[in-house]
Amino acid sequence: AYGLSFGTVSSLEVTGDALFKGSKLWAPNGGIYRFGGDLTLSNDSSTTWRSGGELDVVPASGAGMGKAGAEVIVGGAFKVCSRCAIFARSHPQTGEATKIAAKSFELCANAAIDGTGLGYPAKKGPGYVNLCGASHGGKGGFDKSKTSAVADPYGNRRAPTTAGSGSNTYAGGGAVWIEAEKTLTMNGSIAVNGVGSGGADS
User: Fold this and answer.
1) Does pTM top 0.85 for this prediction?
2) CA 134 – CA 184 distance, rounded (Å)
3) Which of the listed residues 16, 19, 137, 140 has the most CB atoms within 10 Å of its CB?
């Protein structure tokens, strides 16, 4: 169920607390989403995996690779409860990420941040070279004939905000960008893998 779904609108300001219980905030066009109090993604008491609240924001292009194409700003605590998820999408053509900034951030057990295959699509990204595994924080693999030069690594391998590049067939991983002013608690899972064989992880 969609709690909030944005089309061409690309901004939101909530002065107090916000709760998405078994519902989704979907924003396909970037923008800035401000919550003055706490933001909580909660489940509806179901035991089904990912039956809870979801945050899914697609960054806009224009800022440049590794920059914020969308922002979620939480004045208080951002809590992602069990069976809830954040989708770590990057812009599929230009690589911008969604930046999440909060006073504190908590990813509970059995909650997830998932950017698997949500980076550059197949044959896109600065780490793509035909017939080679995509590069990102390190160099990708050569093709069997070694006739193509592998792309150079890109981004910051210690604090990456850049999306993974695609390979010939598969998409790369998206980028997770979270800034917490006070505490950052991670008890859930984070996956930003490339899909299949050859896509670059983020």
Assistant:
1) yes
2) 31
3) 140
